[in-house]
Automatic annotation (TrEMBL):
InterPro entries: Syntaxin_N. Residues 1-14 have a biased composition (Polar residues). It comes from the Eukaryota. This is Syntaxin N-terminal domain-containing protein. Residues 15-28 have a biased composition (Basic and acidic residues). The lineage of its organism: Eukaryota, Metazoa, Ecdysozoa, Arthropoda, Hexapoda.
Amino acid sequence: MDTSYSSYQNGNQTREQDFQKLSQSHRDKYSKISQNVSSMQRMVNQIGTHQDSPELRKQLVEKKNVKLYLESFIDVMEIEAY
């Protein structure tokens, strides 16, 4: 087999593997964002009720910060992919 063709195939396999890893990472992060948004919606619905507490509000801020971090991380990854 031609070594240049073999090298070409190996390069494509590596790119495909990298793409699959990046795709999985994006899916994981989007899933985490979705989970955080759902959780935040439940928490927001508790504000102003008997379930409201300083701890609830603290957790809500923490979830918001995680969501913002993940969103910014995904934006950076998308820019680097191009």
